[in-house]
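re: that chain from earlier
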Amino acid sequence: MKIAKEYRWEMGHRLPNHPGLCRNVHGHSYRMIVELEGEVNDDGMVIDFYELGKVVKPIVEMFDHSFLVHKDDSKLISMLEELGSRKVVVDYLATVENICKDMLQRIIKDIREKGFKNISRVTVTLFETPNASATLMMEV
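^ sequence. v structure.
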C-alpha cells in the first residue's frame, strides 16, 4: 500500500556560482509530497497521518521562513546573522535535487528511529516552483 501527504513552506536560498539569476538572493514557495509504502497495520493504516506529521512537520518548521545557505557562503551568513534572520546552514548547494535528498534522508532517519518497521520505502517529491521538481526514493 502507498500513502501520501503534502507539506508546504517558504524558504530563501541562492546558488553563488550559478551563471544566471539563481546566483541572487531569492526564495520559493516549496511544496513537498511524501509517499510511504508498506504493509497495512492491524489498525488499517500504513501510518497514521498524525504520526507522519510528527516526523515531517519539525523538519518543515526548521526550514520554513529560513534562508538555506551553504557553509562556505561566509558573506551571506554574516549578513543573515547581522539581520537576525533565520538560517539553516548546510554543506550542499541549495538546488532542488540536494534539498530533496536532504529532506528524504531526514525523514528516513526519523522513521527508523521511531521504529515504523512496516514502512519499506519513502519517496519525496520536492517542488521548487509549480512546474519544477525533483523526486528521490529510498528503501527504509
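The first helix runs from residue 49 to 63.
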